[in-house]
Amino acid sequence: MQKEKEQWSSKIGFILSSSGAAIGLGAIWKFPYMTGMNGGGAFFLLFIAFTIIIGLPILIAEFIIGRGAEKEAVSAYKKLAPNSLWTFIGKWGVVGAFLLMSFYSVVGGWVLVYSALSIPGLVIKDAANYPELFATITGSPFITILGLALFLLINIIVVSFGIQDGIEKSSKILMPLLFIFFIILVIRSVTFEGALEGIRFFLHPDFSKLNAENVLYALGHSFFALAVGISVMVTYSSYLKKDVSLPLSAGSVSVMNIFVSLLAGLAIFPVVFAFGLEPTEGPGLLFIVLPEAFAQMPFGEVFLSLFLLLFLFAVLTSSFSMLEIITAAFTENKNRSRKKVASIAGILVFLAGIPAALSSNVLADFKIFGLTVFDATDYLVSNIMLPGGCLFIALFIGFKMDRTLVRQEFSYGNNLSNGMYQVWFQLMRWIVPITIIFVFLGSIGIL
Question: Where do transmembrane segments lie in this chain (predicted)?
Fold first, then answer.
């Protein structure tokens, strides 16, 4: 059967692939600038708290739903709750993944162009010109759309090969290499003169800088960074064998995500303050600050090129998961070619992503509720669709899914006590949904 062919070959392959789905633009690109714009250390502390108390339990829940049903996101809810309104959660996830990928791939295109320009001999030698380089890349309709197209072409090719031969093989090699290069970069960044102020900004919480909107952003980013809320992990875990512990796997993914976010902050903020840059720079922060750091290192051009290449692959492993949930939804139990479906989905994402790609140039003055198309799509996905999806998943696990199946899937492959299960289940049933509702209502001024 087709289902047997589509499985992870090993536990580590699943964990690294799931980590790859989570670790990408969320931890490396978005986290630093979100932290810079939302209070520094206080935002980081909230992000960690939300990741552990809310994000991790939901990640376990998505794993349980996927492996329990042995179906991709749309079919999983249809199998577990047939002929009920709950089946809309899977469709919500596919739409969310599509919208998320439409603007995510724009940034992926920026990274792809940067990676090409970082080849020694091509890149601008003077670090002071990197802000100008970023403005040139994002300001060109041709470059942004070309980057978007090439980025999605890579996604289509890899997802067409399937789980083991495409996604898993790339994740096993590239994720460990990314960790190594990040650690090297952090060591250099924290040794700059003036770096201590950046470390203090990042690690010392000042809660006076927080408001209800910042709290919502921290909650939304904890979901964005773990790739939960759009049932990506439901699809990934549907390819998983029963001997793998879902809570321990989810814990590994969450710890790796927090660790990479920590490394990203320690790599970025010391350089920001050492060079007198603004931590509130926004989406361009990573593309301007990292080259500044590498320019001060021996063989900096080579290190920058290698790091950007690995960063590109980390971004790709995240985007693979989004294209996979869309592709799987239209190939499960259907006589359709994976390659054809992935290609069509990629083309549709490309078309949907064009307005976001043009938001930094020809459509810069076009606003939706005061936001560019790029920022509006980001806000819709990160602050409405992801928290909303997580709320629905929590309610589904807590009140609808068969309790025996939930307990079995939680227990397979580990010796965790019944007390651990009860803590997790009560979190999902009460604490997670109530927290999401309160944070959301607070952010729109109702509370």
Answer: 12-31, 43-65, 85-113, 133-161, 173-195, 215-236, 248-277, 302-329, 341-359, 379-399, 427-446
Q: Which of 109, 91, 102 is nearest to 287 (CA)?
A: 109
Domains and CATH numbers, the chain: 2-443 (1.20.1740.10)
CA dist., res. 6 & res. 33, Å (int):
37
331-389 pLDDT tens trace? 876 778 889 999 999 999 999 999 999 999 999 999 999 999 999 999 999 889 999 99
51: nearest Cα among 227, 269, 200, 245: 227
DSSP label at 118? Answer: T
Answer whether residue 255 shows pLDDT above 70.
Answer: yes
- Within 8 A by CB and 6+ apart from 220, the residues are 382, 383, 386, 387
Q: Phi/psi zone of residue 282: left (φ > 0), alpha (ψ -120 to 50 degrees), beta?
A: left
Number of C-beta neighbours around residue 312 at 10 A:
22
Q: What are phi and psi of 40, to 5 degrees?
A: 65, -125
Lowest mean pLDDT across 1-10, 14-23, 48-57, 168-177:
1-10
Quote the CA–CA distance of 326 and 380 in Å, as a whole number: 19
Roughly how many angstroms between the first and final C-alpha of the chain, as a whole number? Answer: 52
168 near 9, Cβ under 8 Å? yes
- pLDDT per residue as tens digits for the range 393-417: 999 999 999 999 999 999 999 988 8
Instruction: Fill in the DSSP letter of residue 368.
Output: B
Dist. CA 322–CA 289, nearest whole Å: 28
Q: For the chain, give the number of residues.
A: 447
- Taking each helix axis as running N to C, give the angle between helix 88-117 and helix 130-139, from 0 to 180 degrees, rounded to the nearest 10: 130
Q: Are 108 and 151 in contact (CB under 8 A)?
A: yes
Largest CA distance in the chain: 63
Rg (CA), the chain: 21
Tokens describing residue 286? 């990573």
Query: CA 313, 257, 50, 396 torsion: positive or negative?
Result: positive
- Report the C-alpha gap between 136 and 139 in whole angstroms: 5
Q: Is the pTM of this model over 0.85?
A: yes
393 vs 427: CA distance, rounded Å: 12
Q: Which residue's entry shows tokens 């739903």? A: 65
Give the integer Cα–Cα distance in Å for 429 and 360.
Answer: 42
